[in-house]
């Protein structure tokens, strides 16, 4: 269809706004190319998701006769590899995965059309995908847009979920009035805790960048840490040891996020975010206890770590019995609990796994991961032509990463 | 269209034509030539032929409501033997929609047939049998042996009402690939028709563009179709969002206008209203269910809210007033689609189970006869009705997480009513007809017509939207209940309000249904036959009720004599006997005080005619009473005039002719005189 204005001499009036349908776009066969998240190392992350999901599926306490539906919230890339990763576990544990996603893809765009195709093809696999699975066109940040966001109602309609997978490309603590991911995350926790009565999983992948940390958002993370330091010497010394900083200097070092090194920021976010989440969940009614699972860190493009991939299991603690103890005693017990959770976060952060280091020199595992990724991409209709070049592409990408380019 | 390579007629023009001419000529031109050459003693026998340009017009949209498009897509899924259709409307934003089914899907042939023969459906044709859109041995059945709803092949293009850009992703079982069609529809212009070729070559009306591609399937066994509607038209979005209504309400609130004035009010049940981007709510939704409710519970609660809501309203509410456009759409779809009933199938009503069951006699002056039997015998068993199970394994529709059912429940007890009935149990009339139209040449009679039906009577039909008769052809319907019962001319107004009926057409009627499926060609023999039968059935029902009323009236008279009747009551009774339904008792009017508890609303649910008057008004009435002030001094005429003035302001008089108005004026005068006499 030709573009342009056929008769520009006709004067404009606004009654025609929204009346004339959009112009035909030059759409065609969906073009698929390899992206950063198709590198073999990311499959290690997906394996982690899959294993946690499988374990949870095996342990869910479903009422007798209940439909075996596993509700999974995602922010899908067009090829939906994360959903596809669940197939084996779902089949094994005889669950139907009902995936619900939020996407920013523009309506009718290539990404949108790829998602539509992916959804259709997945839903046709009725033996493990629930037919009411759906990708909704909302941004995650819309969950906290104004007092009465539409996105929140929609998400509530589908939730609560057994998994919340926020595989973000962005930075949770990014500055700016529109960067509301942290608020959105806290809203999701609120929705989950008020309505879920079983364990669930929380996956968060976030970029981190010392040069663009929002001081206000960082403050929440810092506060979660310093409150623990104030009541636990063990935590304080542990933290200082982890950050390799002088005794009694954590306050000063954490007071200015812009001065933090990338490594300090990594560990601070890992500990602080975990502690912040744990604290929110503990205060929920009913409370959930956060357990940090194996967590990965890697560099997206350069050589410096800038991506954290966190995995949590949120354990349902049941409705608390009416307080047998005094309010004061209860507060002390909660403080003790928080300290304990902080100590665990410290321990897990110490054991962060460097994804690239894990694969370096181990060709066998690298090939295994490459094969798994290719199989998933194949299911997502990547052509043999593109997949034939996969290894060469992965090699170039790895070299680029090593070289910091 | 023919090539003039063959002699066409015996007319004189034949000799003037070149022996062989390669261009195609219009049949009309040839006929004109033949007419010119027609001798004084000759005649020409020809046939009337329809041009196909009308379909170019149809593709652009002939529907009035967004729900029509979804209804057509549901019907397509049903015809494709789907057992489940899932619709996501993106409510409350409505920027895009998706209809997903697990039906047979399409292969290259059926998809290309759909795209290249709009308005030339392969269903119900031998071609359909060949390409698999119909059963191999019966073109009227789907491959899974459902009676096909679709017939013309324009259903898919009902989406033109919603968008100009949509996508079909489809796959038939056994095929290696999914097929993807990206479709852009053009806006219809008269130029499109004008530009059709005039040189005699076959006219083609291009109504859109399509981009086709294929994608390898994960499994050959997978099948189904997804239709995605991108970029919903802004006007359609506004209708679905009821933008105009909400904005006028919000504007009124903003300027704190007096809302007691007669203006359009917010619907009782609604999906909320968002800003134009659909990001935040300007009005929060008022849903009949909770977000944790199951899809089935959601619908049950929706149905209950419609039933309760319509009962608490004295007037017969239009679903568009009680519900917002979205919920009205859900209601319409639940009526239209071939779904299971919320309760048991009405024809499965047991005999001796609380409802008195009768069989309608198929004669214009027939008489319904009672059906006797044990409680484990159903009306269908007794009359030999064919309640077949769905041959393709059931059909379900889920729209935005709500599972649809046919919104029909027939209570076993007499409903509490404003006007208590003299009939003690609800009535069900069932009928089965194999019409005599099949005896005649189909080109005159329209062919065989067969149907089964029920009529259910109760003092109140709840929800009120179900008053009337609904015609289902091959299990589907595009119309709402017809509360005029196919234009029944006899004045049985009250009685007709107490009847809900469904007619299940087993054969015929298709041709009497207009192309949009939302109205009938009332001159078609099938429609006329059906209308005659329905009217005869109504007469059988009302005769039976009149007999019950006669019996009841004499009993009531005896008991009434023993009680004291005030002069006003007596006067009202005589007006009631003259004007209202003799089968019913005259209602008492209860007046209460307006408060948060809304006592009148509760009383109405229990069947009373109840009004809440504001405390201030009640207070001044009482004050006037104790002070001995009375407008009675003005005289009955002035009071009656004042009452009429109020009624005129409320539009009550608008619906009455002058003779009724005069008679009402006189009756009010009489009642007022009765009081003064005392």
Describe the structure.
The complex is a heterodimer of chains A (405) and B (678). By secondary structure, chain A is of the alpha/beta class. Chain A has one domain (15-401). Chain A has 15 helices and nine strands. In chain A, strands 1, 2, 3, 4, 5, 6, 7, 8 and 9 form a nine-stranded mixed sheet that branches. In chain A, helix 6 links the parallel strand 4 (163-171) and strand 5 (200-207). In chain A, helix 8 (233-243) runs parallel beside helix 11 and helix 10 packs antiparallel against helix 11. Chain B has 678 residues and is of the alpha+beta class. Helix content of chain B is 33%, strand content 15%. In chain B, helix 20 (636-649) crosses helix 21 (658-677). The N and C termini of chain B lie far apart (87 Å). Classes of the chains: A alpha/beta (405), B alpha+beta (678). Chains A and B meet through helix 4 and helix 5 of A and strand 3, strand 5, strand 6, strand 7 and strand 8 of B.
What's the short version?
Chain A is α/β, with parallel strands linked by helices and 405 residues long. Chain A is 46% helix and 13% strand. In chain A, helix 1 crosses helix 13, helix 8 (233-243) runs parallel beside helix 11 (327-350) and helix 10 packs antiparallel against helix 11 (327-350).
């Amino acid at each position: 269809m030709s573009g342009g204005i056929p008769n520009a001499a006709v004067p404009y009036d606004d009654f025609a706004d929204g009346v004339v349908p959009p112009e035909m776009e030059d759409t065609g066969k969906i073009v698929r190319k390899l992206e950063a998240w198709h590198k073999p190392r990311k499959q290690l992350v997906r394996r982690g998701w899959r294993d946690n999901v499988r374990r949870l599926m095996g342990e869910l306490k479903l009422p007798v006769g209940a439909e075996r539906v596993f509700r999974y919230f995602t922010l899908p890339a067009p090829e939906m590899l994360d959903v596809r990763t669940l197939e084996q576990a779902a089949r094994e544990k005889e669950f139907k995965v009902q995936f619900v996603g939020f996407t920013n893809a523009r309506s009718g765009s290539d990404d949108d059309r790829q998602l539509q195709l992916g959804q259709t093809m997945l839903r046709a696999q009725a033996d493990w995908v629930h037919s009411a699975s759906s990708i909704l066109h909302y941004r995650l940040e819309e969950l906290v847009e104004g007092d009465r966001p539409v996105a929140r109602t929609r998400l509530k309609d589908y939730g609560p979920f057994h998994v919340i997978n926020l595989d973000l490309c962005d930075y949770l603590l990014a500055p700016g009035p529109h960067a509301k991911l942290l608020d959105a995350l806290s809203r999701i926790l609120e929705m989950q805790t008020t309505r879920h009565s079983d364990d669930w999983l929380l996956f968060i992948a976030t970029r981190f960048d010392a040069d663009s940390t929002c001081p206000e958002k960082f403050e929440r993370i810092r506060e979660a840490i310093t409150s623990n330091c104030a009541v636990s010497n063990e935590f304080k010394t542990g933290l200082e040891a982890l950050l390799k900083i002088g005794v009694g200097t954590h306050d000063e070092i954490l007071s200015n996020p812009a001065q933090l090194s990338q490594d300090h920021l990594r560990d601070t976010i890992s500990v602080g975010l975990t502690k912040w989440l744990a604290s929110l969940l503990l205060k929920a009614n009913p409370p959930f206890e956060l357990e940090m699972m194996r967590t990965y860190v890697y560099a997206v493009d350069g050589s410096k770590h800038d991506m954290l991939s966190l995995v949590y299991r949120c354990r349902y603690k049941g409705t608390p019995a009416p307080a047998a103890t005094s309010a004061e005693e209860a507060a002390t017990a909660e403080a003790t609990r928080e300290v304990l959770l902080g100590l665990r976060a410290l321990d897990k952060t110490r054991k962060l796994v460097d994804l690239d280091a894990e694969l370096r020199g181990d060709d066998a595992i690298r090939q295994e991961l490459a094969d798994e990724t290719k199989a998933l991409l194949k299911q997502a209709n990547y052509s043999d032509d593109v997949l034939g070049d996969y290894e060469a592409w992965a090699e170039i990408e790895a070299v680029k990463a090593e070289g910091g380019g | 269209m023919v090539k003039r390579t063959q002699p066409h007629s015996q007319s004189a023009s034949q000799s003037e034509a070149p022996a062989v001419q390669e261009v195609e000529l219009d049949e009309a031109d040839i006929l004109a030539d033949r007419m010119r050459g027609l001798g004084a003693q000759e005649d020409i026998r020809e046939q009337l032929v329809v041009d196909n340009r009308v379909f170019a017009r149809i593709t652009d949209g002939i529907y009035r409501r967004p729900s029509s498009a979804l209804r057509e897509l549901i019907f397509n899924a049903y015809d494709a033997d789907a057992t489940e259709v899932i619709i996501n409307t993106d409510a409350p934003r409505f920027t895009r929609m998706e209809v997903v089914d697990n039906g047979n899907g399409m292969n290259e042939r059926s998809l290309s047939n759909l795209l290249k023969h709009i308005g030339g459906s392969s269903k119900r044709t031998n071609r359909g049998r060949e390409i698999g859109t119909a059963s191999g041995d019966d073109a009227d059945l789907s491959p899974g042996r459902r009676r096909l709803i679709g017939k013309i092949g324009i259903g898919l293009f009902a989406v033109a009402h919603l968008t100009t850009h949509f996508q079909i992703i489809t796959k038939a079982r056994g095929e290696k690939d999914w097929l993807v069609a990206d479709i852009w529809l053009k806006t219809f212009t008269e130029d499109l028709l004008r530009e059709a070729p005039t040189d005699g070559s076959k006219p083609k009306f291009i109504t859109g563009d399509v981009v086709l591609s294929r994608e390898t399937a994960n499994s050959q066994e997978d099948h189904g179709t997804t239709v995605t509607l991108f970029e919903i038209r802004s006007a359609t979005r506004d209708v679905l969002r009821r933008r105009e209504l909400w904005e006028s309400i919000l504007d009124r609130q903003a300027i704190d206008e007096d809302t007691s004035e007669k203006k359009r009010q917010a619907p009782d049940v609604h999906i909320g209203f968002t800003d134009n981007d659909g990001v935040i709510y300007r009005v929060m939704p008022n849903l009949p269910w909770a977000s944790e409710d199951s899809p089935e519970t959601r619908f049950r609660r929706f149905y209950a809210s419609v039933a309760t809501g319509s009962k608490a309203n004295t007037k017969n509410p239009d679903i568009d007033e009680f519900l917002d456009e979205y919920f009205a759409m859900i209601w319409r779809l639940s009526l239209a689609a071939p779904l299971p009933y919320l309760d048991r199938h009405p024809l499965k009503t047991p005999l001796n189970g609380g409802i008195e069951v009768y069989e309608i006699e198929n004669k214009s002056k027939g008489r319904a006869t009672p059906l006797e039997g044990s409680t484990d015998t159903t009306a269908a068993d007794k009359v030999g009705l064919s309640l077949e199970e769905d041959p393709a394994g059931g059909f379900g529709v889920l729209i935005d997480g709500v599972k649809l059912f046919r919104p029909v429940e027939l209570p076993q007890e007499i409903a509490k009513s404003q006007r208590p009935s003299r009939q003690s149990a609800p009535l069900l009339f069932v009928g089965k007809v194999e019409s005599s139209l099949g005896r005649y040449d189909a080109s005159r009679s329209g062919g065989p017509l067969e149907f089964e039906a029920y009529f259910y009577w109760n003092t109140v039909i709840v929800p009120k939207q179900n008053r009337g008769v609904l015609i289902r052809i091959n299990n589907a319907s595009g119309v709402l209940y017809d509360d005029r019962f196919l234009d029944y001319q006899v004045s049985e107004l009250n009685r007709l309000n107490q009847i809900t009926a469904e007619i299940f057409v087993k054969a015929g009627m298709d041709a009497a249904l207009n192309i949009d499926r939302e109205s009938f060609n009332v001159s078609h023999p099938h429609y006329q036959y059906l209308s005659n039968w329905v009217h005869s059935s109504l007469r059988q029902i009302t005769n039976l009720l009149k007999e019950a009323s006669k019996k009841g009236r004499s009993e009531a008279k005896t008991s009434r004599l023993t009680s004291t009747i005030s002069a006003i009551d007596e006067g009202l009774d005589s007006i009631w006997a003259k004007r209202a339904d003799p089968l019913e008792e005259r209602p008492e009017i209860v007046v209460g005080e307006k408060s948060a508890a809304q006592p009148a609303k509760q009383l109405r649910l229990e069947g009373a005619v109840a009004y809440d008057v504001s405390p201030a008004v009640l207070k001044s009435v009482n004050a006037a009473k104790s002070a001995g002030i009375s407008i009675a001094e003005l005289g009955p005429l002035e009071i009656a005039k004042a009452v009429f003035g109020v009624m005129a302001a409320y539009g009550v008089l608008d619906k009455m002719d002058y003779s009724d108005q005069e008679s009402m004026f006189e009756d009010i005068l009489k009642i007022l005189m009765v009081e003064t006499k005392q």
